[in-house]
Design a protein that fits this description.
single chain; about 350 residues; mainly alpha; two-stranded antiparallel sheet; two-stranded antiparallel ribbon; 15 helices; globular
């Protein structure tokens, strides 16, 4: 007969080994971007359920389409911000380049009568040029990207006012307005454009050599250079793409509101885009992030803003809420990655320091 004592001993030895395998699996899964995506969209579902129970008319078809429509421009800018952040840089000029793009489109198409396609190509070229300047100064002049893009923010915002003398220019042709106001079936065109942007960037990051090199540059610039990656080229190209995306967002927004102005979306959209990227799990240190995560973050931010409006919350408090959400998202991300311990936060000392 088997000895019960031996069986108990074997079980006691197996438990630590099993616990170790479970812990290893959990650490691997915790570091996986897929868990973040699942968590983000799970939080979105919970948020929708809560608002469906508390906010009138939230789950109506018209309101759901409105959430996606509100997400379109923010989503395009957030996608641009994600791309740059994965490469270990930051671009705070995206919203101002977007405002300049809409303003430039109004001046070219409405005031000067330039045909639609050449006018839009000129606007996209402006976005590419802004990104090229940002990338060149960051990569070759070694100016921190925050400083470079902060300067571009001021330049783009100023130029938007200069070329219009501070006026709002309205009256786009119908073909231009279709980009912001028409629908393909039940889906607004801006939502379709944003979906295409996310799909293309997702494939760019996951299926191309550029995507692999961008993650490598964001993870460790020195290591990327040692394996033959042209770091400066990757940085410049990334900023150029971000500039073009900002111009696309400007075209879509100006078509949606039928006007171009230096103030349209220049400030509040930037905050929403940054919040969406942070919620989406893109690392502030570079080298990690997904377009799916950013998409979830964009939908969460748009849902919160929509829900607060339905609940008749003051718009100023909405800005406060977005700011608080950014801080909470970063804290949760730091705890999740093991870089911050709650007990250290409560005690008011940096994590990782040994007790005296």
């Amino acid at each position: 007969m088997p000895n019960p004592a031996d069986a108990g001993a074997r079980a006691s030895l197996a438990r630590p080994a099993l616990r170790g395998r479970v812990q290893d699996a959990w650490h691997r899964w915790r570091g996986s971007p897929y868990l973040q995506v699942v968590t983000i969209f799970g939080a979105l579902v919970v948020l929708w359920v809560v608002l469906a129970l508390t906010a009138p008319f939230f789950l109506t078809e018209r309101n759901i389409l409105n959430i996606f429509l509100q997400s379109a421009v923010v989503g395009i800018l957030a996608a641009a911000f994600t791309l740059v952040l994965i490469g270990g840089e930051i671009d705070v000029s995206i919203s101002s380049v977007q405002a300049l793009a809409g303003t430039l489109a109004a001046v070219l198409v409405i005031e000067h009568g330039i045909p639609l396609v050449p006018g839009m190509l000129l606007v996209l070229g402006m976005g590419a040029l802004a990104g090229l300047i940002n990338g060149y100064l960051t990569a070759f002049a070694t100016i921190p990207s925050f400083i470079t893009t902060l300067a571009m923010l001021g330049v783009a915002q100023g130029l938007a006012f200069v070329i219009t003398s501070g006026r709002t220019i309205g009256g786009f042709p119908d073909a231009y307005l279709a980009l912001g106001q028409n629908e393909i079936g039940p889906v607004p065109v801006p939502v379709v454009i944003a979906a295409v942007v996310f799909l293309v960037l997702h494939l760019l990051l996951t299926q191309t050599r550029f995507g692999v090199e961008l993650y490598a540059v964001g993870g460790s610039r020195r290591a990327a250079s040692r394996v033959g990656i042209r770091v400066t080229r990757i940085i410049v190209v990334t900023f150029v793409i971000a500039g073009i995306l900002s111009a696309i967002a400007g075209i879509v927004l100006s078509a949606r509101v039928n006007s171009g102005s230096g103030t349209v979306g220049a400030t509040s959209i930037l905050l929403d885009a940054i919040a969406a990227v942070v919620i989406g799990g893109t690392s502030l240190e570079g080298g990690a992030g997904t377009m799916l995560g950013t998409l979830g973050g964009v939908l969460i931010i748009s849902t919160i803003r929509n829900g607060l409006i339905l609940l008749h919350v003051d718009p100023f408090w909405q800005q406060v809420a977005v700011g608080v959400i950014i801080v909470l998202a970063v804290l949760v991300d730091q705890v999740f990655k093991g870089k911050l311990r709650l007990r250290d936060l409560v005690r008011g000392r940096p994590s990782g320091l040994d007790e005296d």
